[in-house]
Structure formats: C-alpha cells, structure tokens
Amino acid sequence: MDLPDIEAVAAKVHEAWMEAKRARGVTSRKSETGEELMVPYERLSEEAKELDRSSVRAVYVYIPPADGKRFASWCATSACCAIGGKSG
Questions:
Q1: How far apart are CA 75 and CA 61, in angstroms?
Q2: Which of 24, 45, 64, 68 is 20 to 30 A from 18, comparing alpha carbons?
Q3: Residue 76 or 85, more confident
Q4: What is the residue extent of each domain of the chain?
C-alpha cells in the first residue's frame, strides 16, 4: 500500500486542526515563538509545518506497507521522509 505524501497529509492535518479550533471559537493561536498558526498551511514557517509533518509520521509508523515492514524501517529510502530532511 502506498501511503499518501506526507506534505499533502500534513496540510490536511493543519486544515482539520484549524477547523476544530474555529468550531470552539478560537480565532488566533500563536506558537511559542509568536508565529500565528491559524493561517493556511502554505503560509506557515518550515518549523511550524514540521509539527504537522511529525504528526503524520507518528501515524504512518503504525501503518505497515504491503511488504509488511513498519514505516520506520522503509521510510529512510522513501520520498515521504525526504520532506523535512528526516527519516523514521
């Protein structure tokens, strides 16, 4: 099974996070560095985007690919982890 691209899923994760915040009446959320996070994914800093990418990677670890290996074992050679320069 080919998993969706981490960057595309991270953008959706961010969108869903913003929708959940808005549903609770939150209109602004700042990072520890003061960056506004309630903006479209494309406008986030790389540091903020990496938080969403990390969330996706954390889930992908538990989804075995077709060969039965865990994500962490094949991720280092996959384009999915080239985003952000991390593996596993």
A1: 9
A2: 64
A3: 76
A4: 6-85
